[in-house]
Amino acid sequence: MLIGGSMGTASYILGGTEEGMKLAFGSACHGAGRAMSRHQALKTWSGSKVIDDLFGHGIVIRSPSFRGVAEEAPGAYKDVSAVVDSADQAGLARKVARVVPLICIKG
User: Fold this and answer.
1) Which three-class secondary structure state does DSSP give residue 43?
2) CB neighbours of 50 closer than 8 A, spacing ≥ 6?
3) Are strands 93-99 and 60-62 parallel, antiparallel or unpaired?
4) How far, in Å, CA of 36 to CA of 78, rounded?
5) 19, 23, 24, 27 alpha-carbon torsion, rounded to 10°
6) Beta bridge partners of 15
7) I need a surface site. Which of 38, 64, 70, 75 has the fewest CB within 10 A?
8) Which residues are the active-site residues?
9) Tens-place pLDDT, residues 64-99
10) Residue 65's CB: how many other CB atoms inside 10 A?
11) 16, 96 Cβ separation under 8 angstroms
12) Do residues 72 and 106 touch, judged by C-beta distance below 8 A?
């Protein structure tokens, strides 16, 4: 399964486990999950600042909307590594690969 992080954080590929089938019918996390609402993210970040910050980390953002970028700022999401580690430690899934963003295209 693919577990999405955010525009500025890693994402993960996880594999299912027998224990996960027994405990949760094969279900695990679906992504990092939001830590704040889109409305709160708009109050906290500007899209142009998010684009500049991510560019400083080697990540290119292409979007027709600064608003959409601000709503999806990396800080608006939970720590995907902690979420994935929890699923892994609970036996719901096992980590297969960690991937990092190079470019994000927002439609």
Assistant:
1) helix
2) 7, 61, 69, 70, 73, 74
3) unpaired
4) 9
5) -20
6) 94
7) 64
8) 30
9) 999 999 999 999 999 999 999 999 999 999 999 999
10) 11
11) no
12) yes
